[in-house]
Amino acid sequence: MQFAVHALDATDSTQSDVQRLAAEGAPEGTVVTARHQRAGRGRRGHEWWDAPGESLLVSVLLRPSAPPATAPQLSLVGGLVVAEALAGFGVTARIRWPNDLLVDGRKVCGILADAASDGAGRLHHVILGIGVNLNQSGFPAALAERATSLRLVTGRAHDAALVLDAVLAHLARRYAAWQAGGFAALREAWLAHAGLSGQVVRLPDGTRGVAESVGDDGVLRARAGDGRLVPVASGGAMEEETAHAAGH
Fold first, then answer.
1. Could you tell me if 172 and 1 are in contact, meaning their C-beta atoms sit under 8 angstroms apart?
2. Which among 123, 133, 7 has a CA at the least distance from the CA of 59?
3. What are the boundaries of each domain within the chain?
């Protein structure tokens, strides 16, 4: 896949920018990055907090030939992609279901996949938003215990362009594998980067359950309090959302 990167200094939201470009017919691989977002958002409508120039804020347009029901799997693909990219910079991040990356229990990256279907119900496009905390030396008090950055983890500053290049390189490879074989083709790699076992998650009915496994379909199986094994799609709610600091 070829990428065409539109680099902005500031914007309201890279997701919104790519949404507009997608509606105008932009090709797959269109990418928008920004040094700062004025109105970024995380999962479940949460705001995105960032200081100018300290985060990698990127949204990628994908146009997969796939059933709409499989679109949430791309948030899982995104988590794997970023975990592999960060490993190249000396950072071991664990995926927290469904799409946060943590280092030592603190969030370093959040991912948001927005899907759109056409009038016939076919998947039109998916916008994969990725936000990585790069060079923050600290966070607001409300976030300090929950967020971290590559700089805090490694003790050095990181070049956003180099991290972006790594993310896109891994995305091209893993997205191609997903198109060819679905999430089943990536499941073992995903599990290798995930801290899944025993994770508390929110079930579709609003109660809490304990994660047990993820199937080839990308659906989580969690044990409810009454012993039932409940499927939870990757678009479902997680136990605690911390996208304020690092989520798109």
1. yes
2. 7
3. 4-195, 200-232
Nearest to 129 by CA among 27, 238, 37: 37
pLDDT digits (tens, 9 = 90+) for 7-57: 999 999 999 999 999 999 999 999 999 999 987 555 444 455 567 899 999
**The two structure tokens encoding residue 190:** 């995903």
Which H or E run includes 113? Answer: strand 106-117
Query: What pLDDT score does 50 carry?
Result: 66
- pLDDT single digits (tens) 142-151: 888 999 999 9
- CA 168 to CA 130: how far, in whole Å? 11
Q: What is the DSSP letter of 110?
A: E
CATH number (1.10.10.10, 3.30.930.10, 3.30.420.40, 3.30.70.2190) of 4-195 reads 3.30.930.10
Q: Are 157 and 151 in contact (CB under 8 A)?
A: yes
